[in-house]
Amino acid sequence: MFYTCGPNEAMVVSGCGRSPPLMIAGGRVFVFPCIQQIQRISLNTLTLNVKSDKVYTRHGVPISVTGIAQVKIQGQNKEMLAAACQMFMGKSEGEIAQIALETLEGHQRAIIAHLTVEEIYQDRKKFSEQVFKVASSDLVNMGIGVVSYTLKDVHDDQEYLHSLGKARTAQVQRDARIGEAQYKRDAVIKEAHAMQEKVSAQYKNEIEMAKSQRDFELKKAAYDAEVNTKKAESEMAYQLQVAKTKQRIEEEKMQVQVVERTQQITLQEQEITRKERELEAKVKKPAEAERYKLEKIAEAHRLQLIMEAEAEAESIRMKGEAEAFAVEAKGRAEAEQMAKKAEAFKQYKEGAMVDMLLEKLPLMAEEISKPLAEAQKITMVSSGGSEVGAAKLTGEVLDIMTRLPHTVEKLTGVNIAQATSTRMG
């Protein structure tokens, strides 16, 4: 069956299957009835009033000491719990507390025997630490831990502590009187020093005040001089500024007059420009327009005449070329005819052929000159090179006349110049 216990209690299960016994601090455990046994041990904190009466100190003075200790079995430490179970299992809390109390009391008495009354009375913390340290090391072996130890009371029946108090009181009173006398002495000395320092401070203060007054007067004089200088400079600057202002006003007046004069000149120039433009619009522009019109009419008439002349000259040239081609074709036909005649009449000599050719030349010349004879008017237009135009026309005529013998020579194979030279010879 199951058994439980609180955090301030421990259970020990022993018997069949539990070797060594099972120890549980605060929890539950299953126990087989009849073959296993369960026991409980308290883990509560125990308050012990450790009292040692009439214990002789190191100097043989009997005193009584009372201390308060808090102890408990340590359930979290398995080894200490096992030791406590071995020593206190089956005992009540009172019995356990009595064993711990006797142990603490013994250690407390031992420590008192090694100390003087003064050491115990004056340094209670040191005494408590020694008891706590010595008792803890012994109680740990029993599984008990000392939580705290405090010295509660120290007294004796021989009025030793009272005598120590009287002596201490007398000492304190003496020290108080000495301290008071020393305090009064120090107070007088300090008062004198304070008075001396006060007088010295007063003199120093007066000196500083005098220095400050002197510095004030000097600085005031310097400042007054500087102020007067600044005032004079300010007055001079004011007068200078007034003069500059007047001069600037005069300059601005002059500038205004200059601007007004400039504007008048500009207005006059604009009036002149307007009148010139009016004159130009009323007189010059119509004259220029009329002149431009006449120039354009003359230029158009000139171009018309040039184009008519060029057209007429081109017509004449083309007509002349056509007639020349016709004459050339006719001459080529006659030359062929004459060639055939010459071949037929091989008995004719070259002279006879020349005579026949010469007889035909006037007719050929007449035919060539017919186009020129039929021209009613020849107009030559030039921008100043009339001699060049005439020379060009003459050149064309001469060219025609020059090509005529070559044409005859090409058709007949007779060199006219050579034949003529031979005939004359």
Structure commentary:
- Among the domains are: 1-43, no CATH class; 44-157, Tetrahydropterin Synthase, Chain A (2-Layer Sandwich).
- The chain contains 8 helices and 6 strands, in the order βββββααααβαααα.
- The chain has helices at residues 78-88, 93-113, 117-122, 124-139, 160-344, 350-374, 386-412, 416-424, and strands at 2-15, 18-30, 36-42, 46-56, 62-73, 144-155.
- It has a 3-stranded antiparallel sheet. A 3-stranded antiparallel sheet has the order 4-5-6.
- Helix 2 packs across helix 4 (124-139), helix 5 (160-344) packs across helix 6 (350-374) and helix 5 packs across helix 7.
- The radius of gyration is 83 Å and the shape is elongated.
- Residues 242-285 form a coiled coil.
- It comes from Chanos chanos (Milkfish).
- Belongs to the band 7/mec-2 family. Flotillin subfamily.
- Residues 84-266 form the Band domain.
In short:
The protein is 71% helix and 16% strand.
Placed side by side, the strands forming the largest sheet appear as 2-1-3
The residue fraction in helices comes out at over 70%
Unreliable residue stretches: 385-390
Average pLDDT number: 76
Q: What share of residues are in beta strands?
A: 15-25%
Total helical segments = 8
CATH class of the domain at 44-157: Alpha Beta
> Strand pairing plus helix content: what structural class?
alpha+beta
Major sheet description? 3 strands, antiparallel
Level-2 CATH architecture of the domain at 44-157 = 2-Layer Sandwich
Distance between the termini: 188 Å
Shape: elongated
Number of strands: 6
InterPro entries: Band_7 (IPR001107), Band_7/SPFH_dom_sf (IPR036013), Flotillin_C (IPR031905), Flotillin_fam (IPR027705)
Protein name: Flotillin
Coiled coil: 242-285
Subunit structure: Heterooligomeric complex.
